[in-house]
Specification:
mainly alpha, about 550 residues
Length: about 550
Amino acid sequence: MSIIKTVSRDKVPLGQKAAFGSGHLVLNLLPGALAVFMFFLVTAFGMDPWLAGLLGGLPRIFDALTDPIMGFISDNTKSKWGRRRPYIFIGAILSGILFALLFQLSENNSVMFNFWYFLLMSLLFLVGNTMYATPLVGLGYEMTSDYNERTRLMAFANIIGQIAWMLVPWFWVVIADPTVFSLSEETLRTIGEMGLTGDELQKLTDEKVQATGVRQLSVMVGLACAILGVLPALFCKGMDAGKMENRKQISVNTLSSSFKELFQGIKEVSKNKPFMKLCGATFLVFNGFQMVASFSFFIIVFYIYNGDYGQSGTWPAWFASLTAVVTAFMVIPIISRIANKWGKRKAFIISTIISIFGYIFKWWGFDNSLNAQFNETSFGQGLNSAVASIFETINPFLDSIGMSWFSIDTSQGGPWLMFVPIPLMAFGLGGLFTLMMSMTADVCDLDELDNGMPRKEGTFGAIYWWMVKLGQAIALVLGGAILTLVGFDEGAVSQTAETMFKLRIADIVIPAFTAAIAIWIMWKYDLDEKKAKEIKEELVKRRGEL
């Protein structure tokens, strides 16, 4: 049980938690939507997969450079609006506008024109997004100095952030649905004048629909992110920076000395052993998951439904969305309670062990014979009938609002057992970012104790998320390599039994193995509640309350 009772001054009001949560929704929605939309660079805009891969990788190199710089700038900013909020406000608006502009491509342009347009716009978008994301993360670290309130704040923010992952899987569905983003009369007339028939006509029509969907949906996402993104700047409060000493002067004249201070700060952060353990554990858990993130989709389509995309329908989207729902409304609140009772380190270890069991149970959850047996049971038949009855009732309404794509077809039964491991697997990522972000805030106190002012929440946040992005890039490359190694043929209508067997093994072993190593890394993490309390008391003696 916690030894510290949170005093009223350290409690974050519900309104501020909600505003900070809206920022986390944007932090999740933008990269999630970006990943989906970039897939259509190949299918809708005719870009070579290798060029599309470059557009995914090259901007990340630039992003890796800008994150620490933005962290340093926000740590040392002096303004009447605080260190973080001016950047969050401007960055949110820029991120939303530039995201929308990023995908205003035309399928009629040359491939190289679209390549250079997207590359240059990506760099501009990342500037705006870095201006937004890095100060927002730093703001979260300083909204409270209480050990347990930090966990409650991050839990609340991550619950709201999971809404993005409830929505993003459906972007795949709606972008390609002609009933959602219909073609203009002019476009239909142009297609008709080409005199195409059969597969060629269908292929061209699909490309036009997808391109239209990407352009229109990107505007909606950008507008939503701009509106939601400014809320933390308007309503959240950080530490009182008036008492913070030794902040550097940020100007053109001090550019040389500022870079020296930046590298000095990065050096100090890299020597912080507890923080490096947090980075290492995050790198392993998150990127072990990311490496196989697409495998569930392939297993559903090519193993359960033998490559029939029509039969697989919306099951992959439902799998991803329900994972986010369970993570948000069941797993994260439980993890927050465990952390409050037994501490953050134990909460991380417990949640990660539970997730390993979830990964293992996927073997049976995706098993075709077991799912067939389940559908023959009275409970399975009742479940299929109940779901069919629900959608039979609401389908007319869904049709009337253009959401027919949301429906589920259970006439042939459903792979229901694949949903069983979700509550266990969700403990992995659900616990990871809730606890790691809370523990990073504790590490910022330790850094101030060891290295003095200014506090480096921005720099810590930038380095932490730089590790996440680096690992994500590596995971995407390795994920593709694994697909090749198991013999997956993306051009084939169906996959061999041997390929699917190997893919299912990889889908389980890789995230379970990386999670196990993360537990080993965190086993002797020693910045617990008692030590955090002692550090806070010493800091208050040194410079008073902030």
